[in-house]
Amino acid sequence: MRNIIAVDIGNTETTVGIGSKDNWDSYRFTTRDTNTPDELLALFNSTFQIKSEVKKDIEGAIICSVVPQATNSFSEAIRKYLNLEPVIVGPGIKTGLKVNIDNPKELGPDRIANSVAGYLITETDTVVIDLGTATTFDVVSKNKEYLGGSIAPGIKISLDALTLKTASLKSVELDTPNKVIGKNTYEAIQSGLIMGHASMIDSMVEKIILEIDIEPKIILTGGLSKVVQPILNVNVEYIENLTLVGLEEIFKLNN
Question: Model pTM?
């Protein structure tokens, strides 16, 4: 398969990747819904520096987004950049999964892409954990059925809330702590944020397994995965560009 451009627009960060399968050239940018299509076009040109002969090898583009205004701007930029109409992940698009929840239209496009990629990689019962602005859990059965999931505040949101709502607590670096019992306020906040989040993930996976009686594969993705993974008790596989893998599969299903 030729390369595609895959765009994952999150509330905090936007990931843009060019590639296919396991070969992705990807970049992360701060999400701004005020960027014009021309500003994004300049960003494409300066970041990827794609020459005309390389552009010919790009088969198409796909976007998943939780920020509608940014979706419109990226779509227009891709039209100008490649003269192609991007696929937009949303209601009615083919994903290869049966979505078994109360209202399938509520399921975020990034969670759809993650779930598609999770099953594509494992081909069995799978739990995908994405550590982004929110920490999300998505469960897919071996029968290619999306069963549902959970959404919790992400680590950065928790840190922002803690420092905003208290007078004396300051922000900390989001690094993996060496111990649970902090010897000062800085270490105590690090422990509560990172160790506490890891404990939440361990417990949630345990509860998911008990609730639906499966032994799933666990996939971890998202910006803070490398901070949390070393202190998890559950056995997980970290895949950096999981969402892009799912977007590529959805692109193929719709072309």
Answer: 0.92
